[in-house]
Amino acid sequence: MKRVLSRFVIASSLVAGCSVFTLAQAADVAKPDAAKGEQLYINGEMSRGVLACVTCHGAAGNSTIEINPNLAAQPFEYLVKQLNDFRPRDEKTPAARLGLNGAPTLMANIAAGMSTEEIRDVSFYLSQQALDPELAAKATNEDTVARGQQIWRGGLPERGVAACAACHSPNGAGIPGQFPRISGQHASYISEQLKLFRSGDRANGPMMHDLADRMNDADIAAVSDYAAGLR
């Protein structure tokens, strides 16, 4: 009992310490501007190679192109992290988010042309947008619903795969500041990202690599389609 209590105290102290650090950091960073973020999202800044986000991700972050994710209603902190992860850390360290076979993604050049302030502005703007129920993706494969639901709700205990709902919430809404919204996301995009986590080409989520590495293509296809239909 004492050992459990000790671990709880240590964990609580770490959380409190992280909170203080986060607040201290926040005090030194200007509050993000949604209006500026919207302008960049709609118009881009071609002088720096920043393509208008709306071109690929749709009006207010509601993508109608399956290979491009819906960004509306994603957590601000998550979007900031992803945009930064598309950029190489330094000359010797590649970006944490790469495409198939380690190739740079289209987002690499776009994110590289954005300032820290612009990344925060556009991320804040998108976090304030609503997912359009008419445009959001839907589950389409009735044959895999049961399997997808099983993985989402209960995981694959025999292979050490935790339930997706534990982090992304039962309805796929995610947890702000920690885990992204998955509901209404294109199934093909979810599937692609799980495979990139599995291969290690997307190296900005060690936990996701470990989980995807224990899933086969059929598992990934089933849970991706199921997640797309969550609301």
Structural features, described:
- The protein is 50% helix and 0% strand.
- The chain is globular, with a radius of gyration of 19 Å.
- It has helices at residues 2-27, 34-43, 54-57, 76-85, 106-112, 116-127, 145-154, 165-168, 187-199, 206-212, 217-228.
- Helix 2 packs across helix 6 and helix 4 (76-85) packs across helix 6 (116-127).
- The chain has two domains: 34-127, Cytochrome c-like domain (Cytochrome Bc1 Complex, Chain D, domain 2); 142-228, Orthogonal Bundle (Cytochrome Bc1 Complex, Chain D, domain 2), CATH 1.10.760.10.
- It is mainly α.
CATH class descriptor of the largest domain = Mainly Alpha
Radius of gyration: 19 Å
Please state roughly what percent of the residues sit in beta strands, choosing from under 5%, 5-15%, 15-25%, 25-35%, 35-45% or over 45%: under 5%
CATH topology of the largest domain: Cytochrome Bc1 Complex, Chain D, domain 2
SSE order, as H and E?
Answer: HHHHHHHHHHH
Give start-end ranges of low-pLDDT stretches: 1-27
| Biggest beta-sheet profile | none
How would you concisely characterize the structure shown here?
The chain is mainly alpha-helical and 231 residues long. It has helices at residues 2-27, 34-43, 54-57, 76-85, 106-112, 116-127, 145-154, 165-168, 187-199, 206-212, 217-228.
Topology:
Layout: H1 2-27, H2 34-43, H3 54-57, H4 76-85, H5 106-112, H6 116-127, H7 145-154, H8 165-168, H9 187-199, H10 206-212, H11 217-228
Helix pairs in contact: 2-6, 4-6, 7-11, 9-10, 9-11
